[in-house]
Predict the 3D structure of the following.
Amino acid sequence: MSDLKVAVIGAGFAARVVHLPGYAGAGQPVAAICDLKTELARGLADQFGVANVYDDWRKMLEIEKPDIVSICLPNVLHHEFTIGALEAGAHVLCEKPLAVSVEQAREMFDAAKKAGKILMAAQFMRNDADARAIKRVIESGALGEVYHAEADALRRLGIPTWGRFHEKAASMGGPLLDIGVHMLDQAIWLMGNPEAVRVSAVTQQRFGRRKNVAAMMRNAWDPEKFDVEDFAVAFVRFEDGSDLILRTSWAAHIKENKFGVTILGTEGGVTTGPPALYHTRNGVLADETFENLRESRSAVSQARGFLRAVRGESPAPVLEEETMNVQRILNAAYRSAEEGREVATED
């Protein structure tokens, strides 16, 4: 048995696909799960061997007194539930994006410091085996000075057909906050977390409000209620002079889905999909590809890393300063798109 008690708030996609499988793969039992939709929560409890099901999260915290709480809720709820769990004495692993504003994210980290607990954003895709292989290549110095990066999270037709991803009232944003944040975090982590200073962005709403597109996906959402972007592109300037281009979409006329990061340096360039290094050797162009012998189990790696941090065995895999950097970029991107100009990042 583990020395830690874990509880999960929210029985949706993130709990089912990331958090519960992650804890299970890490050998960590989950004691309780809470959701207003108790039948949904019971289904996951049966699937993952969770003992107790609740429909009141505060009651769950009071009775279970968990050491760790995973927050698997719509974006706009992260702030309230994270602070509540921290004040109840739990360490918190919160789904990405951590918050919907820089101010909220700062308040959440301040609450963690006050409680003496760890708060970590669930940026599990930086645990991808290919990304970790490229991280080792970069840390070896093979790229020289990094000056440019590109991060893509593009779906050909992948507007979420569950939950309220398409409503600002629940999610605040579209693919930029849903899938773009994953590749943005991965890219900045690979770059060594340079501080973002200015952002220029454009958001588009080209597919989600069209009835014919909704019909192609079994009318899973009401086009009249679709009020977030379905495409975004951002150009980020960093304090060290490097830059990054982020592209993300839920729907776009492209050949196939594209998720990956490209990073260019003075001595070489890398891609994460496939994991490869492009450089020169002995005066000629050289390409090196990397094959991982281990299966990529990002959710399990995330759970293991967080559990080690809670036990004091190692630092949290995703650090506060990295998450705040990402949060500043996200909020600056939306502000830039709304104002139609490049803007400075803000804390």
